[in-house]
Amino acid sequence: MSFLITSIEIDGAGGHPAAWRGSEVDPSAILTGELALRAVQRAEAAGVDLATFADALEAPADVPERVSARLDALGLAARIAPATERIGLVPTITVTHTEPFHVQASVATLDWVSAGRAGWLVDVSSSAEAAAVIGRRSPAVDAETWREARYVVDVSRRLWDSWEDDAIIRDAPSGRFVDRERIHYVDFESPSFAVKGPSIVPRPPQGHPVTALRVSSEDALQAAGDVDLVLLPGASDVEARVAAVRAAGGGRVLLSVSVLLEEDGASGVRRAEGMDHVGGVARLAELIEEWAALGIDGVHLRPASLELDVPVIADALLPLLRERKLVGAARPGSLRSRLGLSRPANRYEGSRR
Amino acid sequence: MSKQIHLAAHFPGVNNTTVWSDPESRSQIDFASFRNLAETAERGTFDFFFLAEGLRLREVKGRIHDLDVVGRPESLTVLSALAAVTTHLGLAATVNSTFNEPYELAKRLATLDHVSGGRAAWNVVTSWDAFTGENFRRGGYLDKADRYVRAEESLRIVRSLWDAWRDDDLVLDQAAGVFAREGAGAFADDGDHFTIRGRFGLPRSPQGHPVVIQAGDSDQGRDFAAAGADVIFSRHGAFEAGQTFYKDVKSRLPRHGRAEDSLKIMPAVTVVVADTDAEALDKAHHIREQQVSGPTAIVLAELLWGRDLSSYDPDGPLPADDPVVGSSVTQGRVGYNDPAPIVAEWRAQAAANGWSLRQTVINQQNRQTFVGSPTTVAEAMNHHVQENAADGFVLVPHLTPGGLDDFVDRVVPLLRERGVFRTEYESTTLRDHLGLRR
After folding, report:
1. What residues have CB less than 8 Å from B17, skipping those under 6 apart?
2. Which of B57, B138, B294 sits opposite A200 (nearest CB)?
3. What is the pTM of this model?
């Protein structure tokens, strides 16, 4: 069995609605990005492979006692990139109302500023709220937004390929900075948008930054075959759901579970509605071993509290998983190589020869 | 006290003024280059670091232009990353208002302001051409006349979103469990171009509003800037043209109820420094020759003549025929509306000096603004500012990323000695550096 991929989710002060109220939390550090930065640096030091960043087009719900504000995930991931060295950075990016050309350029740029550690967690916006903040078109049903998302993923990859890796030649004798034969128009058309290309950004270090999505509906499952990394939320019915993603042709499959950890398993006393796992790290390590036997490639841990749970993940859980030979030594290199994915060949390379 | 100078650093872009053939030229895309130039600017206590934007690769006669630096990262993402490696430097992104939605712009710019502790700026530009539009859902649908209407509406809405939270809406009361005042961030706007409503997800940012920069030069563009910009990025770096522009724009401010010092005028300029004035002149000439190779001279002449000149020898005479008016042999760059008098001027200069086509292009274009010893440059710059030809400058180096080293090491100390430029940052936000109100 190969080693498991490990990842964590960054969302406000953590996944638990009351996480921001703990005395260990400086709530003003949520919106400066400091809380997220500290959590990602702790996870990186422990060898966690990647961090995802939660986001949605519309604002978080305005519900009493909750964190009702959020930084743009891409901007936050970019802010963290130069302050980290090895961990993958995967912001949530919604693609229903945005311009595909901007999306691909931003993700490629995150790959450049992180030297090959970028991914994007593709999400859709089918709510009336999301449609209303843009005002360009009516809300669409989930199935339609996921169909369109697949076109956005497709055109993004074409645009990442629109520059061959060796397009910049700096050929002083002929005065040419680029070889225009190695830069390509994509001429992409979908039912709802068209993009001429080429990208404005040269091909990013990973060739294609890692494309991820969360499969929590049949419609999202339809897109699973198009991506490198699938997040599968919830701890129930693992085997059947992993099989469904495999059948759809999905890449790496991570079980995505919310966790509230106590270093001492006996004192799981904190309030924890709706968490997938509450308790000690020893029990969680056992569960992860059981899930691994059901065919997952790794885990995506959604900590209840960044300040409380990430240190436990880093200092206790990872060493335990390593002891059980479920996790190997931290792997260097690009995010793709950490995930055991090859660098994609450029679809245009050779077309001119 | 003398008027204080404001300085910004422009990361070299895609024009032929950026010399890539020099041995000192490094990557235009690696983050190390951006970091290096930003660190130099911060060492020089500059007000801000400025990035241009590209949305389509330029073309010459239907093919991708291959002679200049091309390919760059997306501005807001690079600047968010630079926030991690700088502490005081303002971070200015050029972002088009035509091919972006106000809600997304407001969110991304406010995020940059939050994660940088109040150092974000937005250079508002507009576009209307179908050529750029081919990369976007919105397409090339906008009449040229409508572009400022949309830009104005876009800017107004972005600002209303930045104001959607009041300063005291973020409560952060952990004991009572009140993160924000209920209802904070609600907005609704019905305009000609946008009808939007909902909640904005970010509290008012450290600067209140990120700094707004504008670069238009038409009558409409100047009014747009006078009505709402904090900084004008102008192209009038020469002394007299600068004074005329300065006077014109500042005189428009009272009509919009604004004080004269609420808008800073910062022309784009180039600087060539050497030990002596004579050496600087030699160096300037060498740089101009690097900027305009033979093939580049032909392309620049094609832009003016409006037709294919590839059969011409750049070291030979100028083309004899008249220019084609209204042609677009090149796409994605500014052309000439009225080329005939410019061609006549080029011809006269070439005849008087015995210049070839390339020599004419070199001498007619790419003039450096400040050339001389460090003392000469410092005095000239200060003269421009004290005599109201500018409030400061956006420096456009010809080399990536080391092109500002000479200026920061040799000219900045002289400006400081004269008491016209800060010796250290006195504040942390860009608005404060510029002396603008929150």
Report:
1. B270, B291, B366, B396, B398
2. B57
3. 0.97
